Amino acid sequence: VKWFFERINKLAEEFQPQGVIFVGISRLAKFDANKMITVADMTDEQELLYYDAWVREYDVTYPLAIGGYQEDALIDAWASQVIPAVTVVGKDGKVFYVRTGKNPEHMDALRDMILKALAK
Questions:
Q1: Of 1, 38, 55, 91, which residue is most buried, by most CB within 10 angstroms?
Q2: Is 61 in contact with 9 (CB distance < 8 Å)?
Q3: Is 97 helix (H, G, I), strand (E, B) or coil?
């Protein structure tokens, strides 16, 4: 996980001067990240504390959009059922590229697609 976020942070930093915005998208899941279990009575506020810790631990430099536990328009529109997934949205607001995975070749492909989206 740390390897993935180090690379995403690096890409966000590299492309920020060109106006590229990175946003992490996730959904509340009533998940206790310390015990690695689902907790049925966990409050949203309690779970958001894990996101705060995660941002600090992995030095996430871009904003996070956290959707609700139930159906959420943001999550339904942009989030994947596969984690991690990356969606590049072009200047026109349309999806330009979607990729799942976190291997080095996935990061290289993501960088290439960002460059192509910028050139379009």
A1: 55
A2: yes
A3: strand
Contact 77, 65 (CB under 8 A): no
Residue 25: half-sphere exposure toward Cβ, Cα within 13 Å: 19
Summarize pLDDT for 52-65 with one digit per residue, the tens: 988 899 898 888 88
Instruction: State CA 49 to chain mean position distance.
Output: 17
Residue 85 has pLDDT above 70, yes or no: yes
Query: How far is CA 114 from its chain centroid?
Result: 15
pTM across the whole model = 0.77
Query: Torsion-angle region of residue 30: left (phi > 0), alpha (psi -120 to 50) or beta?
Result: left
The values of phi and psi at residue 76, to 5°, are -60, -35
Instruction: Report how far residue 77's alpha carbon sits from residue 23's, in angstroms, rounded to the nearest whole number.
Output: 14
Q: What is the distance between the alpha carbons of residues 90 and 98, in angstroms, rounded to a whole number?
A: 11
Q: At what angle do helices 2-15 and 104-119 cross, to 10 degrees?
A: 20
Neighbours of 66 (CB within 10 A): 16
Q: Six-digit token pair at 90? A: 């072009």
